[in-house]
Amino acid sequence: MEMGASERGRQRHVPFHAATTIFNQEVAPVAYGCVKFVVVRSGQARLLSEDDEYHVAVGDIAIVSPNTICGTIPQESVSATTVYVNEDYVLDQLFWQHADKFITRRDVVWFIETHYPEPIQLIHFGERAVLRLSRILDELACLSEGGNSESRLHRFQALLSIFLDEVVPTLKARKESTDRSGAGAQSLAPLHRPTRSEARSVAEQLRRNISRRWTLSELSQSVHLSESQLRRVFIEAYGKTPSAFLRILRTDRMADLLRQTDLPISRICQEVGWEDPAYGSMQFRRRAGVNPQRYRKNYRRTQPAQSTTETPCFSEDPVAKASSPRDAFEQVVDQG
Length: 336
Hints:
Elements: H1 5-11, E1 16-23, E2 27-30, E3 34-48, E4 53-57, E5 60-64, E6 70-86, H2 87-97, H3 105-115, E7 120-124, H4 127-132, H5 134-145, H6 150-167, H7 197-208, H8 216-222, H9 227-238, H10 242-260, H11 265-272, H12 277-288, H13 292-301, H14 318-321, H15 325-335
Antiparallel strand pairs: 1-6, 2-6, 3-4, 3-5, 3-6, 5-7
Helix pairs in contact: 2-3, 5-6, 7-9, 7-10, 8-9, 10-11, 10-12, 10-13, 11-12
């Protein structure tokens, strides 16, 4: 259950979007870089992910994670309202909603990945419950068709909050794990394989050499696409441009080095590919919500008093796990 090309274009530039559509034909599998809430208003259909199949009927709500391939095969006809919410918007809302529990936005990413790892979660919300939300869903769709304005944005956000207050408490969360090994840059890996191999190839090149001064031209040549084609397929696969993807890789690596070493911030910026420390610090703050100095200070405050120079944060040693970053983080939360 997907939006059309023009709707996808609008959605990339706004934090949320909604559309009600009647489907009579199969919709090919595709992935998007936003969270989707698919509310089935009438009829039945099959949702197809890369590894599973879900049967949905009126009263069901499917929550689809970013970068998850999903297609639709309707049974005769199905009507659904899909609410698209920008991933960064979701992270920001969670970060500020639980500011007493999270040190940086990286902790929000870890929280989502450990508590809600399923690429698609199906909620049997109930036909009456969906009917109760009909007015809100219809107005969200109407606001999306009316274009962007300050008044519409505020009204949409208010209605979206009501919708999420009804739906989010019904989500099933997995029991929390205290092992954060593998966090950081790996959080950029999509839960499912992106649609195009060219996008995967470019993402892997960026991961292997984040300090290189990449250009869109050389990346597009490496996968035999034009620059505009590469930009399009990469956004469809990861929800971000290659340059934005690289910025996230670099800032996540900066966070690792800030936690694991005592290297000067200027040196860390150079290590990840930013020759100008001021620019690197600015990019880090945009991603983490705090500057590098504050991030390191906040992290050290949660750790036992010991040198961290060149010492990995995450160890496979069972003794080391007893004082893992997550354990220390929880101690800070308890004290707060």
